């Protein structure tokens, strides 16, 4: 908004040449900033691409149980340890206040992680690589994901979900 | 000479309160509708995928 109101009849006056220059300059700056945003999206270090399906907690739980039964290799504190083969679908469930299962993945192999919540909003965050996704109940988030370094990674919840939120820690082991 | 009547766009651009309200209201409506369309366009899990998971192939 201008500091002072324009004089009457401004609508019918021609735009001055210095003003035209500033309009063109401002348009170029705005377009350049917009293109920076597009370029950063394409070339920057982003979260992996993902697709979303609608589902229900019951349906997702059933699919996850079937998936884990196929690839289960053990248990850690009552939580199944699942070792899926490369290029497979892996199901991860967030619920108050735990992540299931413990995943054992192979470095350099591609997986499709299906992540959903059983109750309320959780945040799927792999540390220390700092990948973050908001996980709502009723939706299956499919992340195409390739671990690029081996070791133990922590899965934490980064959306406050109640008194046990701070203890909601899962595990992903990446083997060479 | 009689003064020329201001057109609709001119009147609108001369009204800072209308511009202030519109700059919020237009975005609010557009983003709200965009969100509804996005949510409504989410499809269910494909049956082929469900069969693979449940069928144990």
Report on this structure.
The complex is a heterodimer of chains A (176) and B (57). Chain A is of the alpha+beta class and 176 residues long. In chain A, 24% of the residues lie in helices and 39% in strands. In chain A, strands 2-3-6-12-11-8-9 form a 7-stranded mixed beta sheet. A 5-stranded mixed beta sheet of chain A has the order 1-10-7-4-5, covered by helices on one side. The mean pLDDT of chain A is 91. With 57 residues, chain B is mainly alpha-helical. Chain A binds chain B through residues 1, 5-6, 9, 11-12, 52-55, 59, 62-63, 66-67, 70, 89, 91, 139-140, and chain B through 4, 6-7, 9-10, 13-14, 16, 19-20, 42-46, 49-50, 52-54, 56.
Mean pLDDT of chain B: 88
Total helix count of chain B?
Answer: 3
Mean pLDDT of chain A: 91
Instruction: Assign an overall shape of chain A.
Output: elongated
**Radius of gyration of chain B, CA atoms, in whole angstroms:** 25 Å
SSE arrangement of chain A, N to C: HEHEEEEEEEEEEE
Structural class call of chain A reads alpha+beta
The percentage helix of chain B is over 70%
Distance between the termini of chain A: 61 Å
Strand order of the largest sheet of chain A: 2-3-6-12-11-8-9
Tertiary shape of chain B? rod-shaped
Q: Which range best describes the helical content of chain A: under 10%, 10-25%, 25-40%, 40-55%, 55-70% or over 70%?
A: 10-25%
Largest sheet of chain B: none
Nearest-angstrom radius of gyration of chain A? 25 Å
């Amino acid at each position: 908004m201008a500091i002072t109101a324009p004089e009457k009849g401004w609508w019918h006056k021609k735009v001055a040449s210095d003003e035209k220059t500033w309009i063109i300059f401002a348009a170029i700056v705005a377009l350049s900033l917009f293109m920076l945003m597009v370029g950063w999206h394409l070339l920057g270090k982003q979260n992996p691409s993902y697709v979303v399906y609608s589902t229900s907690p019951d349906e997702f739980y059933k699919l996850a149980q079937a998936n884990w039964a196929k690839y289960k290799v053990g248990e850690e504190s009552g939580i199944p340890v699942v070792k899926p083969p490369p290029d497979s679908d892996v199901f991860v469930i967030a619920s108050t206040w735990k992540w299931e299962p413990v995943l054992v993945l192979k470095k350099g192999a591609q997986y499709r992680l299906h992540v959903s919540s059983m109750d309320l909003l959780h945040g799927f965050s792999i540390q220390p690589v700092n990948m973050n996704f908001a996980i709502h109940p009723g939706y299956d988030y499919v992340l195409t994901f390739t671990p690029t370094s081996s070791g133990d990674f922590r899965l934490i919840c980064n959306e406050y979900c109640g008194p046990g939120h701070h203890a909601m820690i899962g595990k992903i082991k990446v083997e060479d | 000479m009689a003064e020329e009547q201001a057109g609709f766009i001119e009147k609108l651009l001369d009204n800072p309160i209308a511009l202030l309200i519109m700059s919020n209201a237009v975005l609010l409506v557009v983003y709200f509708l965009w969100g509804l369309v996005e949510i409504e366009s989410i499809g269910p899990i494909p049956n082929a995928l469900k069969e693979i998971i449940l069928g144990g192939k």
